[in-house]
TrEMBL record:
Lineage of origin: Bacteria, Pseudomonadati, Bacteroidota, Flavobacteriia, Flavobacteriales
Alphabetical keyword list: Glycosyltransferase, Transferase
Protein name from the UniProt record: Phosphoribosyltransferase family protein
Protein family membership: Belongs to the ComF/GntX family.
KW Glycosyltransferase (keyword) present: yes
Species this protein is from: Flavobacterium lacisediminis
Regions crossing the membrane: none
Gene Ontology MF terms in the entry: glycosyltransferase activity
Start and end residues of each Phosphoribosyltransferase domain: 120-210
Amino acid sequence: MGCDSLLLQNEKIICTECNHNLPFTNHHILEGNDTTKKFYGIIPIEFSASMLYFHKKGIVQNLIHNLKYKKHQEIGTLLGKWYSKDLESIAKIKTVSEIIPVPLHKKRLEERGYNQVTTFCEALSNELNIPHNTSLLYRSRYSKTQTKKDRENRKEITKALFDVNFTEADYNKHFLLVDDVMTSGATLEACAKALLKIPNSKVSIVTIAYTLS
Ligand SMILES: [Zn+2]
């Protein structure tokens, strides 16, 4: 799944060579890491970490592509199991109440048939023993302009795309927001802002990959 080479009998999903070459970020042991810096002065975040660096034409790009477009959801399960071990070393992970995936819009969910972060979230949920909540945060409007990075568009996206469906039972919680790839951080920012509308809520962020810009 990382390089298209044939797997040996004892290899599963990712070959040994790709495995050795995976660009881990070590964000979980670096406070003030790149992912966290994205949100300085924009939204309050408890902690944030990305598992791998995303390089164009690299192993991680292949993994994400296979996970996102080729129905290989087992990649999310594997990476989620691995990353749980690292996340356990973050003290604040113990205060997380729920894992919240960045939702796909209904239309895209129907086209693709699944949300690419579901299996990653499920693996984190199982390994860390934290509930996985897919109904709290929802996408309120379809957007094709998500990849635009300039400041103005970022603000526009932040305003309108996501909302929360909460009751009093959702107050006072620490949400762990999860996405596949962080690039500008605009999507996660919009999601976090929606979650922070819930009284006394806290937000942390985890992504599978981080794009160096
Ligand atoms: Zn490989």
